[in-house]
Amino acid sequence: MSSELLNAMAISTHGMKAQGSRIRVITENVANVQTTGDAPGADPYRRQMITFKNEMDREMGAKMVQVDRIDEDVKTPFLMEYKPEHPAADENGNVKMPNVNTLMEMADMREAQRSYEANIGMLEQSRTMMMRTIDLLRA
Asked: Is residue 101 part of a domain?
């Protein structure tokens, strides 16, 4: 089999794995959009952000995408909501809410899904080309 086709399949597989991790992080953010602290002034859930890197696979001679790290978003401020009955309310009745913007998370999710699907498409194309090559060799 052609090493280029195997490389293409490996690159697509790494891309799918990376986008799967991205989808998991986004899902966690959305699931915690209402997770507050449990004491007055306590910080709520903090949005997670994923960073990727290209790493050279010397055996294949190709760069593969991988998760570099998952960090907390410390730049985006927490939202404040007036909920005087909440256990985490401060003396003014305000509660710190997570710095998760559901609309942005959904946009990121859609982008991650499209990237995942593009990698599946490349994997299927490579597989089809391999099968056609095998068929030609049989003839």
From this structure: yes
Instruction: Tell me, yes or no, whether 139 lies in a domain.
Output: no
Query: The domain containing residue 87 runs over which residues?
Result: 3-134
User: How many distinct structural domains can be found in the chain?
Assistant: 1
Tell me the pLDDT tens digit for each residue of 52-83. 999 988 887 888 999 999 999 999 999 999 99
CA angle 46, 47, 52 (to 5 degrees): 135
In angstroms, rounded to a whole number, what is the distance separating the alpha carbons of residues 66 and 14? 7
| Phi/psi of residue 66, nearest 5 degrees | -145, 160
| CA dist., res. 86 & res. 38, Å (int) | 9
**Inter-residue contact 1 to 137 (CB < 8 Å):** no
pTM summary value: 0.85
Report which of 26, 94, 15, 88 is spatially closest to residue 54, judged by C-alpha positions: 15
d(CA 69, CA 10): 21
